[in-house]
Structure formats: structure tokens, C-alpha cells
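## Example pair
The file below holds two records. Each record gives the amino-acid sequence first, followed by its C-alpha cell line.
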Amino acid sequence: GGVLLTGAAVAAAGPIAFVGLAVPHLARALVGADHRWTLLVAALLGPALVLGADVAGRLVAPPGEIPAGIITALLGAPLLALLVRRAKVVTA
């Protein structure tokens, strides 16, 4: 269910907006559950991820370029799959 909702949200908002869904989970995995640190790391990691995707897209296929949204989607899909597989399902 969650994967379908996330897929629909990314399809509607675009692959760059996927960064807003993935980066907080990555930041929480790096620094733990303290929201102050999670927010700070996510604020730094989000732009760094988009910048890295843009640079990678320019370097992969010179003299043209691959859009940053495609690179973020290629990086984000395995991350989302990993997060979904690691999630603990709580049944009522």
C-alpha cells in the first residue's frame, strides 16, 4: 500500500520531489531519532543529493546531459525498496 501511494505521489509531483520523501529517512538512519539533528542533516543532505544528481547527469553522457530527476529516480528507487523491506509491520 505504501509503495503504491509513494509511487503515485512521485508520479504527480515529479522525481525531484522524491528527494523530500527519501532524505528525511536517510538522515534519520544516519543520526538517529533526535529531530533537531535529523532536520539539520536533512536540510544539508537534500540539496547535496540534488546537486550530486545534476553533476552525475552532466558527467555520464557528455556532451549532452541526463536530467537530474532521472538520476534521483535511479538512486531513489533502490533506497525506497530498502526502506520498505526494512520497515517493521505492526498488525493490530
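Second record, same layout:
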Amino acid sequence: MVDGKFFDKLEAVARAVRKRDDPFGGIQLIICGDFLQLPPVCKANEETKFCFQAKSWRKCIQINMELTEVRRQSDKTFISLLSAVRLGRCTEEVASLLMQTATNRAERDGILATRLCTHKDDVELTNERRLQQLPGEVHTFEALDSDPVLVKLIDAQCPVGSRVELKLGAQVMLAKNLDVSQGLVNGARGVVVGFESEQKGLPKVRFLCGVTQVIKVERWVFKGPSGVYLSRQQLPLKLAWAISIHKSQGMSLDCVEISLSRVFESGQAYVALSRARSLAGLRVLDFDPKVVRADPSVLQFYRQLRNHQLLTLDSLHTRSGADDDKEN
């Protein structure tokens, strides 16, 4: 999510570049996001400032629309549970349903549940330890970067690392949409079931969607400093015994294990829980209702948004009625 101060800086830069005093220099904006998910990352001791709290927000954004259709989940009970958690509400029913998932068997076909962690260090340690515990040879795949000098910049933008290490039986996750119709999408879970005997030794992965496929190298392109384009060619795979809640944003996961004991941010519990497609594919450990929190300023923003939408609808209905009277 874009920080409010950064949004103001972008708006000022846009006016300067376009040499126009119109908001954002006259550039048309379409902004998407959910403020009830993770807040913008800010420096230590700095107060979080959401995009809608930017000084330039009101003059730049004239129309707000709230999308209400849920596409990731289909189970009405789970959707209702997530709606409550999103708003920071944890009723006895919600707590009971989440605690019951602790005994769920989310594993299938040798594909284990991915653990979502609150901290990045836990993710790296878990994946490294589990890979080391597997028997057999390590297969290493080095990325081909357009500019090796800017590897840190590419690392920051690319979903896969410069080095991917795999073994037979490694739990993996796709990091790119390969074939949406077959279920080979970003976040699809699988297990390495073999390696090609050819020189490249590409991995063969069996996915939870039922597809077994040899995974080939893919290419990512990013815009670097001064408008220069950077690229990375690498396997679209990453180890998936664990991933961070932050990195999971936008993903849909079929089997998830979540430890919420170290949740430290508003919206963090909701982001983690809402990655799961179903309650059956979710296992929640160490659940404490106190971790379900929503930022008060965001809740106020959505209340005002809905009130404004209701007033707009009333105004439209009033006008429509007046027009009908004129015609009559």
C-alpha cells in the first residue's frame, strides 16, 4: 500500500513534470486497494499514514467505489467469518470456527500446508531447515540478470531469488501465472517429483490442481532507475514450506497453516486468513481473539465512504422522481 506522504510527493512530482497545476498534473488515476489489509510499511518510530490521509487525496480522487463481490472463496460461512475479521470483529462463533481448524488435515498428494509467518526471518529459517532435512542432491538454478550490478534492486522487485535450490520432495509454489485455465497460477502449490535428465535438469512439479509439469525458466521485466528496464530470467518457483503474510498478499492458497501468536499489525490476521480458499484447507494454530484488529482510521474512512454513497443514491433517486413528475 502506498504511504500517504509518498502519495503527496508523487502528486507534486507529477505537477512539476507536466508543468500543470491540475491535481497530479492532469494524469488520470485509477487506484485499487483495500486499506483494511496490511498498512503501508514505514520507518521505525514513524506514524503510519494511509493514502487517503494524504493532503492531495481529496483533490485527486473524486469518485470512490467499493467492490463487494468475493471471488476467492465460495463457502458462505467462511465468507461471513472473513468479513467479520476484516472489520476487526471476533465473535464467539468466529473464534470457535477458527479454533476448530487446528485439527484440519490440509495435506493432499504429498503437498503440505504452507505455513504463513508474521516475520521474514521465520520463513527463511523454516524453508532452509526443511530443505536440508530432505535426502538427496541439491539442484541449484542461478538467475540470468540483465545487470548483475543491480542485483539487490532486482531482488527487491522480483518474486523469485537470484538462486533457487531444490531437492526431490521439495514443497514449492508458483510465482507467476503460467496457465490460468489449468490452475497454474501465482501461488499454486506443488511438490518436486523429479528432474529432467538433460543438461539443464529442469524440475518436474506435481501441483495440487492435478497437473504435473516440467517448469521452465521465465522472464520478469522491471523499470529501474532513470527509466532503465531490468530483467531476470529464473524458474518461477520458490520454496513453500513457509512464506510471510506480507508476501502472501494477492495469493490464493489451497492449503494453509497459520500461526497468529506473533501478529503485530492491524489487518495482518485478516490478510493471512483470507489467503485460504476454504475453511477445510485452513489450519489455524495458537489462535487468540486479540490478534483480530482493524485500524480505527480505516474503519472511519469506509463508514464515510458508505454514507457518501448512500447520499449520492438518495440524490439520484430524488432527481429521477422530479424528472418523472415533469414528464407527467
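Notes on the second record: The chain has nine helices and 14 strands. The CA atoms of residues 67 and 314 lie 20 Å apart.
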